[in-house]
Design a protein that fits this description.
This protein has about 160 residues and is an alpha+beta fold. The chain has five helices and five strands. It folds into two domains: about 35 residues; about 110 residues, Alpha-Beta Plaits, CATH 3.30.70.100. The N terminus is likely disordered.
């Protein structure tokens, strides 16, 4: 009899552990769903054709000023040159939310920039780090630019509101 009771207690314990694991996973999934409205990072890598680095810098400087004025959801926007390759450049962008990113993708200044830089670059790839909405990911893929999404598995976003 004590053996049966022991087996029942063990089964109840294991069932409780499984329920806690499922509840923990559900809580984690819910937390990440809520992060869709949170900041994330985008890295765009461009490589200029020979003799076109100055033209790329000039176009990038112009679009940067327009983005700063017209996109309040763009929290950080820098254009940096690769220290090992004078033709290599990186845009580093931090978006306030998926909605800010979708707004960016529809910005006529960005669209014009992509058209103007296509003939003077030989590569353009984009990496996204963080959580973004399905509609933002679909909008990114619709651009035709190669995107790679690194989905968040752990981490946090600090609240910087005063």
């Amino acid at each position: 009899m004590s053996r049966i009771v022991g087996t029942i207690v063990a089964m109840a314990f294991l069932a409780g552990c499984a329920q806690e694991v499922n509840e923990s996973k559900a809580a984690k999934d819910s937390a990440f769903e809520k992060q869709v409205g949170t900041p994330f990072v985008l890295i765009a890598r461009l490589h200029a054709l020979p003799e076109k680095a100055d033209a790329l810098i000039e176009l990038s400087t112009k679009v940067d000023k327009k983005i700063e004025q017209g996109e309040p959801g763009m929290l950080l926007h820098t254009f940096d040159q690769d220290p090992d390759d004078p033709l290599g450049f990186v845009w580093t962008e931090v978006y306030a939310s998926s909605e800010a990113f979708e707004y960016h993708l529809q910005n006529p200044d960005l669209i014009q920039y992509l058209e103007d830089t296509a003939p003077i670059t030989d590569s353009f790839t984009v990496e996204v780090y963080g959580t973004l909405s399905e509609s933002a990911w679909s909008a990114a893929q619709a651009t035709g630019v190669p995107f790679k999404h690194f989905k968040t598995q752990a981490g946090y976003i600090r609240d910087l509101t005063p």
